[in-house]
Amino acid sequence: MQIETIQNLFLKNKEASLSHRYITNKHIEPVLNKLSKNVSIEILGTSVLNKPIYGLTIGNGPKKILMWSQMHGNESTTTKALFDLLNTFISSKTETSHILEACTLCIIPILNPDGAKAYTRINANEVDLNRDAQNLTQPESKVLRTVFNSFKPDFCYNLHGQRTIFSAGATNNIATVSFLAPAQDEACTVTSNRTRAMEIIDVMNRALQTLIPGQVGVYDDAFNINCVGDTFQSENIPTILFEAGHYPNDYARDITREYIYISYLTSLDYISKNAITGEYHKGYFDIPENDKLFLDVILRQVKTNKGLVDIGFLFQERLVDEAVVFVPKVDAIGDLSRFYGHNTINVNGLKVFNNNNEEIEIGYENDFVIINNEKISLFSK
Fold first, then answer.
1. What's the pLDDT at 234?
2. Which has the least CB within 10 A, 8, 127, 153, 251?
3. Residue 371: phi, psi to the nearest 5?
4. Is residue 218 within a helix (H) or strand (E), and if so which, with residue range?
5. What pLDDT shows up at residue 380?
6. Residues facing 180 on adjacent strands
């Protein structure tokens, strides 16, 4: 499929009822009702707090793809893009029917509904589900494992979101989308199974480079059998980690969702039309490994009693009245010359004060600082 075609499909099929960062069962259930005539929907199990975990099946082809999102409850961008994708399959059949004829998709839009409601990474028992793949101590982990065993996927899409700190390599390029073909052994061997995942990632990367050049990264493939992706990969099912990252001024992640959507359709189109052997995987190794070189705000050349320093802020995500708000918090003070800011303010040797007219210290939280007796917002205009 041509990129322009996919972009037009996104604009036509974007699910308008889902936006920003706070996505829960309450938000998706009306959409599920709308989709129910065209998608098989079932309750796969329940969470710690007895909330339903929904499973959706669409397509009737022999190639089976298992996709799950919000294993970490506060990582919702990939969920929004899943519903954009489902709308596309239903309303744009001419362009996408070949995918559903070749593939069957099993989708878990919110694996961790308790974490989604509380807007936390962990579940209600304070367990990271992505470290529970072996022990299966949590009901949500057991649901995913049961589906994996019964559906018997040919490919797995492990869908996540990443923080604003990540750069694509040691550069000032934001890692807007990141991928990983997880290792399946301690030696991180490039097995034939992994090369199949790498081949698909290379296809997605090449598509994204035409839109966000230099803004795609891959994660370190250090092996951890307790992680779901590593476990499934070790069982010889090609598994791909998707990470929805930052785009300039897109803290709502409603621009990034389009790049995730493009990744979905590009990869599913490729799988539907090709026998994935791993032969064409080498481009994967051209994707730079993520580094942590970004802060949300950097104040440059701040005058203090210890000389000129830089002050770096990271935004804290807080759930307030069922909405996510961002609170700047001082994370680092000193020489931050190796870091980049999503918003950089050159103070030019002036002093910077907090809301009590005191010098800034680590841990200070507010959406403004005072420079030269003027309140300066820490949010980009």
1. 97
2. 8
3. -130, 120
4. strand 216-218
5. 81
6. 241
- Crossing angle for the helix pair 77-91 and 25-35, nearest 10 degrees? 10
Question: 232 Cβ partners below 8 Å, 6+ apart?
Answer: 133, 148, 156, 158, 239
Catalytic position from the list 75, 243, 279, 322: 243
Domains, in order of start, for the chain? 3-292 (3.40.630.10), 294-377 (2.30.40.10)
pLDDT tens digits for range 221-272: 999 999 999 999 999 999 999 999 999 999 999 999 999 999 999 999 999 9
Please list the ranges in the chain whose pLDDT falls under 70: 381
User: What is the reported pLDDT for 305?
Assistant: 86
Distance CA 60, CA 303 (A): 65
**CA-CA distance, 27 to 29, in Å (whole number)?**
6
Return d(Cα 200, Cα 181) in angstroms, integer: 9
Is residue 359 flagged as an active site residue? no
Bridge partners, 305 (sequence order):
none
